């Protein structure tokens, strides 16, 4: 059997998210602050000589060829012209449609992992560009550093916000990103802010009001976590998060909410686990 390469695919949080306007193509101009979590999926890769891409562990409800992992692998094959393929195993830990970027992160880990395994030598710029074609959130996972993002999320400025511990609550409801971005009541006229200093005090999420209105489960999670610390929505939800100074405090709060809420505790991280692991392989 070929040697396997196992790599993490961390979650992200949007520490703030402002919507500045809507472009002619319907996409929204954003300003958002991405930070990674030391918590995520895990992917393993083994090269195949016959050029086939096979996701061995499929996700129920996501057809094989629509999975962002398979799509990322095909795009990298096309760009590089490699004759190699891969068997890929996914250990799915992150909730789907939660605004913590699991699918995008899986795609980025696939691009970096297969580029390493296949020895195709792509630059980070090339991989970020392929990633953008798969989703607005993929490039930040390819770059692997916490970032202030503008445009539709592709113009990235690396930043180093504070790295607290977070409680992330996972309301058991799927929020459609497209539905929120087409909501008539969505705030779309936030004033642009400057990148530096890192906008920690200016940290609202413009999607939160409409998500709270449409999804009572999310409002409930925000109210419950809000009893302990400032609680906020990540991306278009459904997940909500709050920061704590240490793990013990975060664990205690999650335990107090455990009767009615699903969630996890994770440390914020400005260098993604994926990049830390890749550096250790070099
Ligand atoms: C809102 C954010 C913030 O990080 O996160 P999530 O909540 O999805 O994690 C992202 O920008 C989401 O990125 P991503 O999930 O990759 O979105 P895409 O698949 O590119 O777009 C899904 C749909 O959302 C709308 N969309 C998305 C991004 C954007 N800047 N403007 C939009 O209007 C479009 O209608 C699009 O069809
Ligand atoms: N590898 C993958 N992991 C998760 N979702 C995927 C994947 N590939 C495709 N998808 C599709 O992308 C959708 C959004 O996934 P996800 O990235 O988890 O949400 P979000 O962007 O809200 O964080 C899923 O509902 C699923 O249909």
Automatic annotation (TrEMBL):
<dbReference type="InterPro" id="IPR020568">
    <property type="entry name" value="Ribosomal_Su5_D2-typ_SF"/>
</dbReference>
<comment type="similarity">
    <text>Belongs to the GHMP kinase family. IspE subfamily.</text>
</comment>
<dbReference type="InterPro" id="IPR006204">
    <property type="entry name" value="GHMP_kinase_N_dom"/>
</dbReference>
<dbReference type="InterPro" id="IPR014721">
    <property type="entry name" value="Ribsml_uS5_D2-typ_fold_subgr"/>
</dbReference>
<protein>
    <recommendedName>
        <fullName>4-diphosphocytidyl-2-C-methyl-D-erythritol kinase</fullName>
        <ecNumber>2.7.1.148</ecNumber>
    </recommendedName>
</protein>
<feature type="binding site">
    <location>
        <begin position="95"/>
        <end position="105"/>
    </location>
    <ligand>
        <name>ATP</name>
    </ligand>
</feature>
<dbReference type="InterPro" id="IPR004424">
    <property type="entry name" value="IspE"/>
</dbReference>
<feature type="active site">
    <location>
        <position position="137"/>
    </location>
</feature>
<keyword id="KW-0547">Nucleotide-binding</keyword>
<comment type="pathway">
    <text>Isoprenoid biosynthesis; isopentenyl diphosphate biosynthesis via DXP pathway; isopentenyl diphosphate from 1-deoxy-D-xylulose 5-phosphate: step 3/6.</text>
</comment>
<comment type="function">
    <text>Catalyzes the phosphorylation of the position 2 hydroxy group of 4-diphosphocytidyl-2C-methyl-D-erythritol.</text>
</comment>
<keyword id="KW-0067">ATP-binding</keyword>
<dbReference type="InterPro" id="IPR013750">
    <property type="entry name" value="GHMP_kinase_C_dom"/>
</dbReference>
<keyword id="KW-0808">Transferase</keyword>
<dbReference type="Pfam" id="PF00288">
    <property type="entry name" value="GHMP_kinases_N"/>
</dbReference>
<feature type="active site">
    <location>
        <position position="12"/>
    </location>
</feature>
<keyword id="KW-0418">Kinase</keyword>
<keyword id="KW-0414">Isoprene biosynthesis</keyword>
<dbReference type="GO" id="GO:0050515">
    <property type="term" value="F:4-(cytidine 5'-diphospho)-2-C-methyl-D-erythritol kinase activity"/>
</dbReference>
<dbReference type="Pfam" id="PF08544">
    <property type="entry name" value="GHMP_kinases_C"/>
</dbReference>
<feature type="domain" description="GHMP kinase N-terminal">
    <location>
        <begin position="67"/>
        <end position="144"/>
    </location>
</feature>
<feature type="domain" description="GHMP kinase C-terminal">
    <location>
        <begin position="203"/>
        <end position="255"/>
    </location>
</feature>
<dbReference type="InterPro" id="IPR036554">
    <property type="entry name" value="GHMP_kinase_C_sf"/>
</dbReference>
């Amino acid at each position: 059997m070929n040697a396997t390469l196992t790599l993490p695919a961390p979650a992200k949080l949007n520490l703030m998210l402002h919507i500045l306007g809507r472009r002619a193509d319907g996409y929204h101009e954003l300003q958002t602050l991405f930070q990674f979590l030391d918590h995520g999926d895990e992917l393993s890769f083994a090269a195949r000589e016959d050029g086939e891409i096979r996701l061995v562990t499929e996700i129920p409800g996501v057809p094989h060829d629509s999975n962002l992992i398979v799509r990322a692998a095909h795009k990298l094959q096309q760009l590089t012209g490699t004759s190699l393929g891969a068997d890929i195993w996914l250990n799915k830990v992150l909730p789907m449609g939660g605004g913590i970027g699991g699918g995008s992160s899986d795609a980025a880990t696939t691009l970096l992992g297969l580029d390493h395994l296949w020895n195709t030598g792509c630059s980070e710029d090339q991989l970020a560009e392929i990633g953008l074609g798969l989703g607005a959130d993929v490039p930040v996972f390819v770059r692997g550093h916490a970032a202030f993002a503008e445009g539709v999320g592709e113009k990235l400025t690396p930043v180093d916000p504070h790295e607290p511990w977070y409680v992330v609550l996972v309301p058991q409801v799927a929020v459609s990103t497209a539905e929120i971005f087409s909501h008539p009541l969505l705030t779309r006229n936030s004033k642009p802010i400057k990148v530096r200093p890192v906008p920690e005090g200016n940290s609202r999420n413009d999607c939160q009001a409409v998500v709270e209105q449409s999804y009572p489960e999310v409002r409930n999670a925000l109210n419950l976590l809000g009893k302990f610390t400032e609680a906020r929505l990540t991306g278009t939800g459904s997940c909500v998060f709050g920061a704590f100074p240490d793990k013990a405090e975060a664990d205690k709060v999650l335990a107090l909410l455990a009767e009615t809420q699903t969630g996890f505790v994770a440390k914020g991280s400005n260098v993604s686990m994926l990049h830390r692991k890749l550096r250790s392989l070099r």
